[in-house]
Design a protein that fits this description.
This protein has 286 residues and is mostly helical. The chain has three domains: 129 residues, no CATH class; 61 residues, no CATH class; 77 residues, no CATH class. The protein is built from eleven helices and six strands. The strands form three sheets. A two-stranded antiparallel ribbon has the order 1-2. The longest helix is centred in the N-terminal third of the chain and has 29 residues. The relative contact order is 0.12.
Amino acid sequence: MNASRFISHGVFDEPRFVEAIGLAVRCLDNLHDIQDHASPEVAARCIESRKIGLSVMGFADALLLMGIRYATQEALDFAARIMTLVKATARSTSEALAQTRGSCSPTLLRPGEPLRRNASLMAIAANGTLSLLANVTGGIEPLFSYVIRQTVEGRIIDQMQPTLRRLLAEQGLSDGDIAAITTELVQGTVPADILLIPATIRHSMVRAHDLDPGDHIRTQALFQSYIDGGISKTINLPSSSTVHDIADAILSARASGCVGVSLYRDGSIIGQPSQMATTPQSLEEE
């Protein structure tokens, strides 16, 4: 579910979101009946459980469109709101399908649970490819960078993050204004010092590396409380992080109820896929 598509003029459209969840559950359930499996044994297991994995992507984009800063209490409250809707609607839809189409194996459900069509309903995946197609952030990740750097036919092109660009355009900024903002961001100017950016947008602009591990973990733990499986979410650490910093993050995630945790220390791999666009001088210094 692309959360950003349910924000209109800064307001979350809850009825449309709930309607889409019901359609998504039916769509994912139908896939079990049309897909090809590797073997009859795999097919039998899939039909027995009919597991699906429903959740959101573009969470950070939705926050940006609503003027909410990632990892604040307001952001966590919004996460709880949408996940409560996803969990309740997905369960009620699956229970209704069990009455008309049949249920998954009752042995896969907890004792006392109502019969439902699908043994598992929710997951949070990375959505890497899908989020690229939708021009939004993957899963529940924060914005990685305000400016995306791409190499096309040997030329380096800096492109503003799509949702941020859209938001600035909706505020009446011209292409020239947006190009000027892009240049300042690439040069390292912080949003708070770029007066061309409206104050409400500056307030909500935050990147993965602007957050401390605790911000990442609190967000992941909130989402974790709504699903049984693990969550694909990266805790981005600066290149200066020590073994002690990494150990603290892992232990904190465990204490917060996270099933698993992924950490990445910036610069661990030469030529890492995701890099913040910076000036050539900054790249040389790195």
